[in-house]
Design brief:
With 70 residues, the protein is an all-alpha fold. It has one domain (3-63): Orthogonal Bundle (434 Repressor (Amino-terminal Domain)), CATH 1.10.260.40. Helix content is 64%, strand content 0%. The two termini are 19 Å apart.
C-alpha cells in the first residue's frame, strides 16, 4: 500500500485521521496503523474508504496495489 498517497488524498479532502476513522467506523489508532502500513485494510474497509474519499477504481488499485491500470 502507498501510505503517503493515502495520507495526501485524505488531507486534500480536508479530513483528519480522526474524521476519517469515524467515517470508517474504527478507532483513530486502528486507522492510523492502517494508513501507516502497519496493518492492511480489509475489503470492507477499502470499500468504505473509497466512498469516504470519493475514489475511483483506478485510485484504489494505485493506492493499494501500487500500479496503474492499463
Amino acid at each position: 500500500m502507498m501510505s503517503r498517497e493515502l495520507k495526501s488524498i485524505r488531507v486534500k479532502n480536508g479530513l483528519t485521521q480522526e474524521a476519517l476513522a469515524e467515517k470508517l467506523e474504527m478507532s483513530v489508532t486502528a486507522y492510523s496503523k492502517r494508513e501507516n502500513g502497519q496493518i492492511e485494510f480489509n475489503v470492507t474497509e477499502i470499500k468504505k474508504l473509497k466512498d469516504a474519499l470519493v475514489l475511483n477504481d483506478d485510485d484504489v488499485i494505485r493506492i493499494f496495489f501500487g500500479s496503474e491500470v492499463a
